[in-house]
């Protein structure tokens, strides 16, 4: 069984690298006052091994160490594509300008000489963590914008192109088309138009969520009523594929969330399940609860999801789009939007899937107090 879920945000991890236990103790005492997670390495090789496992947000690196000094550690980290962006602050008793220049040439972001002032070190740590966060945010925004325009230019243009080609075909051949041929073309236009409208609605909702302009009005919700609403609205589409669409949600389960957001999430999950479930399959909405959360799950008997695709399904910068069992179109935006809305309501979303066996997409919502 393959599993993934949206990760919770974590506190910054700082790696302290020094071969002197007393120095580690002093740095640890200073940083423990703040909301950081600390990791420790006592030599250069141990530092590289630790970074490969936890990938810290910042490294405080001593220069003078046996076997492998801090300069060599920095050199290796900066040559590695996965670790080159980790900010490194050298902390050393060597204060000659040549040593400082060498540190910066290797890619360090700062250089602090011993003995240092605690408040100054903390200020620099905070500054470089903030700069790292800002850089990552800007990179994410660029990727997000590029993805957004890619969907508009490729998916929307492609959909309208298909619609226009069908219309042109009818206009140029209306005298020669039989009633059955005409109806088939009109059905194709209808299906493509619906898919295009769904894409456009998802794009608009997602854009509003990114700009903070989407309305958020949490209230007490009966999950049974929401699931029934979705089943009623999608029953015809499921019936066209001879798919049994059912709900097994207890009437008493209540969540505290925004109704429109939750409806959109369930609708997207059920629509996806219909798309990737072959004829005569089945799809069920069920629900469970614990002390604090309601868990809603949409389970299908569909084709499942390949292992290498699961991790990327909730990422806006990854193009994960697969044709349905009846060649239904998709754009990979629906699950991204679901993740945005679930997290906006204080929940998590995840996937359990087995290739050729079926998929369960689940999400949690806070319970009514």
UniProtKB/TrEMBL annotation:
One example of the protein's molecular function in GO is: phosphorelay sensor kinase activity
Using the record's annotation, list all stretches that form the Histidine kinase domain. Answer: 151-369
* EC number(s) per entry: 2.7.13.3
Residues modified as 4-aspartylphosphate are 62
What keywords are annotated for this sequence in UniProt? Kinase, Phosphoprotein, Transferase
* Catalytic EC class: transferase
Q: Does the keyword Amino-acid biosynthesis apply?
A: no
Q: Which reaction does it catalyse?
A: ATP + protein L-histidine = ADP + protein N-phospho-L-histidine
Which InterPro entries does this UniProt record tie to the protein?
CheY-like_superfamily, HATPase_C_sf, HATPase_dom, His_kinase_dom, HisK_dim/P_dom, HisK_dim/P_sf, Sig_transdc_His_kin-like_C, Sig_transdc_resp-reg_receiver
Q: In its UniProt entry, what is this protein called?
A: histidine kinase
What region holds the Response regulatory domain?
13-129
List, alphabetically, the Pfam families matched. HATPase_c, HisKA, Response_reg
């Amino acid at each position: 069984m393959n599993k993934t879920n949206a990760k919770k945000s974590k506190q910054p991890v700082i790696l302290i690298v020094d071969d002197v236990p007393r120095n580690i103790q002093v740095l640890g005492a200073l940083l423990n006052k703040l909301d950081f997670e600390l990791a420790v390495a006592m030599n250069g090789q141990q530092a590289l091994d630790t970074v490969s496992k936890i990938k810290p947000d910042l490294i405080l690196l001593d220069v003078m160490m046996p076997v492998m000094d801090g300069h060599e550690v920095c050199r290796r980290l900066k040559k590695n594509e996965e670790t080159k962006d980790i900010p490194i602050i050298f902390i050393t008793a060597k204060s000659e300008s040549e040593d400082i220049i060498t540190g910066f040439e290797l890619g360090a972001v700062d250089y602090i000489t011993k003995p240092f002032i605690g408040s100054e070190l903390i200020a620099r740590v905070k500054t470089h963590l903030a700069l790292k966060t800002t850089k990552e945010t800007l990179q994410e925004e660029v990727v997000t914008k590029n993805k957004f325009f890619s969907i508009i230019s490729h998916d929307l243009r492609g959909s309208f192109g298909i619609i226009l080609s069908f219309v042109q075909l009818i206009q140029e051949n209306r005298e020669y088309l039989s009633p059955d041929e005409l109806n088939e073309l009109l059905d194709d236009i209808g299906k493509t138009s619906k898919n295009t409208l769904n894409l456009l609605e998802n794009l608009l909702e997602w854009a509003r969520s990114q700009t903070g302009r989407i309305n958020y009005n949490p209230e007490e919700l009966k999950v049974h009523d929401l699931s029934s609403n979705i089943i009623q609205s999608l029953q015809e589409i499921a019936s066209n594929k001879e798919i049994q669409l059912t709900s097994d949600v207890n009437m008493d389960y209540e969540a505290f969330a925004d109704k429109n957001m939750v409806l959109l999430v369930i609708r997207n999950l059920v629509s996806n399940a219909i798309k990737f479930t072959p004829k005569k399959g089945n799809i069920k909405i069920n629900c469970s609860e614990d002390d604090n959360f309601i868990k809603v799950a949409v389970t299908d008997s569909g084709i499942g999801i390949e292992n290498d695709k699961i991790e990327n399904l909730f990422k806006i910068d990854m193009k994960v789009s697969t044709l349905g069992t009846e060649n239904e179109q998709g754009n990979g935006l629906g699950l991204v939007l679901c993740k945005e809305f679930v997290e906006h309501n204080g929940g998590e979303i995840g996937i359990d899937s087995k290739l050729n066996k079926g998929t369960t997409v689940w999400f949690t919502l806070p319970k009514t107090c």
